[in-house]
Predict the 3D structure of the following.
Amino acid sequence: MVLEKLFPASWMEHYFRSAFILASGYSLISMVLATLIFGSSAGIVSVVFLSLLLLPSMRKLLEQEELLEEKEKKFFFSHLFTDNWPLVKTYLGIFTGVFFTYLLAAIILPQIGLNTTQILREQLFLDPVISGRATFDLATFSGILLNNWLVLLVTFLLAVLVGDGAIFFVAWNASAWGAIFGTRALLASTIMEPTALVLAATLLVFVIWHSFIEGLAYIVAAISGAIISQDAVRKEPQSKELPVFLTYLFGATILYVLLSSVSSGFPSFIRFIFLVGVVIALLYGLSYAFHIATHRRVFMYNYWLFIVAIAIFILGVLVETIVLSSSTTVSQIYLSAQMAS
């Protein structure tokens, strides 16, 4: 691919700003192409185009990461950071570039006569109804946990099944959050005095913390699943481990769905703890599908990495709950946006 030759994978790996600039440029190109070709379905198609542009570079980075983990002879938690930091940094740069490009698009496109609601329809469809100030209590916290838990789990499973294709889910979340925050700021500006850009900047002062902590959780989950896929599922397609692994995975998924249905009557927080425990136990059971030592080592390495993703996710939701319950500024912007919509 021509763009791959111009911007090699190493260019993104070593510099956060490089991944940011590349993702911003690709996002803009993808949005323009999707709007010209698909019109009202441009929102989701633009992320598909963006993912296709990013895939070659991400595939190379994941291969490098998988080889690095194979060389580890003993597990250390410190290695989870040192080994994965270059890849995490790249994903964060991509996430940030996509986020800000779609946020600015949501504000600027209406100024040049384009209908943002149509162009970014799929992203804005995910906007939760938030007005006024939330209450900081266990019910609010656990409600947000359960709402976003499925996103984290699907990100991981998608990465396991399609490997580097998980970049789509990371880019999709970044584009949705950017479009939603930009649109809220634009709508609020029709009622409040500051301009949309000023309101967006003000909003980001408060929400960028939980947005990027939760975004980091999705990124770590995507890396974890993608490396498992790279090593155990795609690298040895003729291995006897593959059908065993896929059988275990299918059975574990069915069991999780059944237990999730059974737990639907539990209190929200108890249900979340229960579902997380189920996933952790089922994933550990999946490790027995691997008999090749290097494959089992890589799997367990990324098993722990996914647990780290869960911990980051819980921290992000805690920060989000605090922001929603304590910030008068955020509640005013959200309320004004809802009134103007």
In short: The chain has a mean pLDDT of 81. The first helix runs from residue 2 to 6. Residues 2-340 form one domain.
